[in-house]
Amino acid sequence: MFKEVTPLFPTPLYVAQDDDMPNVLDSLSDLERSPYGYANGGERTDSTNIIDEIPQELSEWIYSHIKEYVYGVQGISTEHHIQIPNSWINFMHKDDRAHPHDHCNSIYSGIVFLSAPTGSAELIFEKNKYKTIEPTIAEYNLYNSHIYRITPQDGMICIFPSDLVHYVDVHTLDQPRISLAFNIFIRGEFGMHTKRLNLK
Known about the structure:
By secondary structure, the chain is mostly beta strands.
């Protein structure tokens, strides 16, 4: 008998724990930042191009992982070049959290944990799809789960499609949880004939 389960059209979530991430925490203290527009939403840098302002060694480290995701995991041709249209740093303090959201005007998005003390609030991804019925699950797995949790660690980077809904649980520690978020767009020539698109 032959049987097979095919993970048809999966959502590729890239997670790397890289101890070689440069430590730039000392350079963040002077960054101008403002609170998010809702209660206990934490703070974000006023600059939305922070990746151009951080030390170059961290920027290069981030780009190396982005290239692995775009060209390696996604299999996109290197004829296309990568653009980061916006990037910012989030500061979460005790009792802060982030609502479920996705990122528009981008193709992929990512998060780098610059400082994630043990016990930091988890990053949670949510399956945003209509449920016809909701049976009792005997054992959860990647096929029947509606949420996926990531425990943040220093030097961890996550990259995922921008339409993947995600949020952050309540941060319960006195030490801040600091992460750098970014969006990715792909530029170049797409398609041919009547489907041709030039986004250089």
